[in-house]
Amino acid sequence: MHFRTKQIHDGVEPDPTTGAILTPIHQSTTFVQPSVDRYMEKGFTYSRSGNPTVRALENKLAALEGGVDAPAFSTGMAAINAIFMAFLDAGAHAVISDVAYGGTYRLSTTVYTRFGVEFSFVDTSDSEAVEAAIRPNTQLILTETPANPTLKLTDVRAVSDIARQRGIPHAVDNTFLTPYYQQVLELGADMSVHSTTKYFDGHNATVGGAVVLADQEHAERVRFIQNSTGTIMSPMVAWLTMQGTKTLSVRMDHQSANAMAIAEFLEAHDKVVKVAYPGLASFPQHDLAKSQASGFGAMLWFEVQGGAAAGKALMESLELWTLAENLGSVESLATHPVTMTHAAIPAEERARVGITDGLVRLSCGLEDSRDLIADLNQALGKI
């Protein structure tokens, strides 16, 4: 089946008791066992270890990305943490994209370093730099592509080839493009990690995460962490995420079309000094974007004349765009990463990787692009 069909039908069946077309919300702590000898006969015992509603979502996500399993977590950061716990021993080393979500940086540098884990934050757009950063004790490579917020891309196939030659698992944060636009397991990655909060949910209704795995032994490791740490997604969140996933492709196509129209408008505006969107021919890695993904996504960023002060003034003048953290929702959101999503990263590190004080990140929603552009235009007229 093709993606649009799988996003609706995979992982779900009509309820055998009532015929309900939607998977029931199994809001139950425990599951009755028929006898001691038939323990686990129906596959569930206690919702920390597995829940039918959560499992339906997990099956759907695994099918959409071609994985063997897709453990779902309470948050996207819980999913990242599960990868760290599953593959990093005390004293190990990991290579991570130098541009990554601020929470990933914070977890690495303030939590895992307490246990002797070392991290190299590397420009993973340069596969030679990735290879040079690998040490004898490197146990994980985690790349984020497109990166948050600069949209810098990593050649997933090239880095996966390097990782495989060294016997190192390669995980890709695929949150920005989802498997609808970017099939990272097909490109050779071992794991695809998502904040399902974003495009899978799509409605600002939940927080959640998932890890889709290509290898059964890796999947068992992550499942063990999910159960041991108690960070499984809740049934209600899984149910809501499942409904959002059924419209993923339709939403992303419209949101991405909006992003292209807005990027072209901003690139032509005399008060905008820089625009970054992988769909623009001016984007430095435009060819790579076309070669490893089927779409460019709905995220872009820009800077205006006058730097941070002008950028702040612009954001204060927006009326239709919502100033908020998060992305991927039906509402269009504007974010100032330096004070919001990436505040945990030291200023010198932000400057090194290109997260400037004046950078404005846009997550394009489902509104009419003409209205979104008109709002940007009036705000630009006030700076």
Outline the fold blueprint.
Layout: H1 3-9, H2 52-65, E1 72-73, H3 76-87, E2 93-97, H4 102-110, E3 118-122, H5 127-133, E4 138-144, H6 156-166, E5 170-173, H7 178-181, E6 191-195, E7 209-213, H8 216-229, H9 235-245, H10 248-268, E8 272-276, H11 286-292, E9 299-304, H12 307-317, E10 322-323, E11 333-335, H13 347-353, E12 360-363, H14 369-380
Parallel strand pairs: 2-3, 2-4, 4-5, 5-6, 10-11
Antiparallel strand pairs: 1-7, 6-7, 8-9, 9-12, 11-12
Helix pairs in contact: 1-2, 2-9, 3-8, 12-14
Estimated share of beta-strand residues: 5-15%
From the N-terminal CA to the C-terminal CA, the straight-line distance is: 50 Å
Question: Helical amount among residues, as a percent range?
Answer: 25-40%
Low-confidence parts lasting 5 or more residues at pLDDT below 50?
none
Instruction: Count all strands and give the number.
Output: 12
User: Residue-averaged pLDDT, rounded?
Assistant: 95
Brief sketch in words of this structure:
By secondary structure, the protein is of the alpha/beta class. The chain is built from 14 helices and 12 strands. It has helices at residues 3-9, 52-65, 76-87, 102-110, 127-133, 156-166, 178-181, 216-229, 235-245, 248-268, 286-292, 307-317, 347-353, 369-380, and strands at 72-73, 93-97, 118-122, 138-144, 170-173, 191-195, 209-213, 272-276, 299-304, 322-323, 333-335, 360-363.
Q: Can you characterise this structure?
A:
The chain has helices spanning 3-9, 52-65, 76-87, 102-110, 127-133, 156-166, 178-181, 216-229, 235-245, 248-268, 286-292, 307-317, 347-353, 369-380, and strands at 72-73, 93-97, 118-122, 138-144, 170-173, 191-195, 209-213, 272-276, 299-304, 322-323, 333-335, 360-363. The chain has a 7-stranded mixed β-sheet, sandwiched between helices. Strands 8-9-12-11-10 form a 5-stranded mixed β-sheet. With 383 residues, it is an alpha/beta fold. The N and C termini lie far apart (50 Å). Helix 6 links the parallel strand 4 and strand 5 (170-173). It has 14 helices and 12 strands. It folds into 2 domains: 3-245, Aspartate Aminotransferase, domain 2 (3-Layer(aba) Sandwich); 248-380, Aspartate Aminotransferase, domain 1. The protein is globular.
